[in-house]
């Protein structure tokens, strides 16, 4: 997961980039409904609906810094 200006993105290896939307501090959700929750100062992440991160309908093309 990374931030570019005021937008957030996530990418699973060899899968399309997906834009994530902040829902609460440390909680992000994709358009498809996958949720990422960061805990323990970001060293732990829980993914809900992991398969929805593999859905290509929410893909965007961005350049990572």
What does this structure look like?
The protein is an all-beta fold and 65 residues long. It is built from no helices and 6 strands. It has a 6-stranded antiparallel sheet, with no helix packed on it.
SSE layout and pairings?
Layout: E1 2-4, E2 7-10, E3 18-24, E4 27-30, E5 35-39, E6 44-48
Antiparallel strand pairs: 1-2, 2-3, 3-4, 4-5, 5-6
List keywords for this structure.
mainly beta, 43% strand, 65 residues
Give the low-confidence spans. Answer: none
Give the ordered list of helices and strands. EEEEEE
Number of strands: 6
The main pleated sheet reads as: 6 strands, antiparallel
Helicity range of the residues? Answer: under 10%
Distance between the termini: 12 Å
Strand order, sheet with most strands: 1-2-3-4-5-6
In short:
This protein is mostly beta strands. It is built from no helices and 6 strands.
């Amino acid at each position: 997961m990374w931030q570019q200006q005021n937008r957030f993105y996530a990418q699973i290896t060899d899968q399309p980039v997906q834009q994530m939307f902040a829902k609460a501090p440390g909680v992000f959700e994709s358009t498809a409904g996958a949720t990422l929750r960061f805990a323990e100062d970001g060293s732990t992440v829980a993914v809900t609906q992991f398969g929805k991160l593999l859905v290509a309908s929410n893909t965007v093309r961005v350049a990572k810094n």
